[in-house]
Amino acid sequence: MNKRELIDFVCSNLETTKTGAEETVNTVLRGIQHGIAQDGSVSVAGFGTWNTRDRAARQGRNPQTGAPIQIAASKTVGFKPAKAWKDEMN
Question: Cβ(73)–Cβ(57) under 8 Å?
């Protein structure tokens, strides 16, 4: 499912316009981004938790030349689904 399909899903389930559904989806996504930036994590009960993760510096390879390159340390966002959701999937 991509963002457009998610908007269509919200539109049909809330019986709203596509514009309204798009605003709803965008607001939720911005809220998650804001929460992660401000607190370092966002937790939605029964769904899961997004949190920041640190990536260590490492050595990689240039895919075109095969030459080794140094990849700098960085931050990323990870997601861990809630136990109830994982149990439902299995």
Answer: yes
Q: 83 is in which domain, residue-wise?
A: 3-89
Task: Report the CATH number at residue 61.
Answer: 4.10.520.10
Q: What is the C-alpha R_g of the chain?
A: 18
For 2-49, what is each residue's pLDDT tens digit?
999 999 999 999 999 999 999 999 999 999 999 999 999 999 999 999
Cα atoms found within 13 Å of the Cα of residue 86, Cβ hemisphere only: 7
Task: Tell me the sheet residues that pair with 65.
Answer: none
Among 69, 73, 44, 42, CA closest to 57: 73
C-beta atoms surrounding 42 within 10 Å: 19
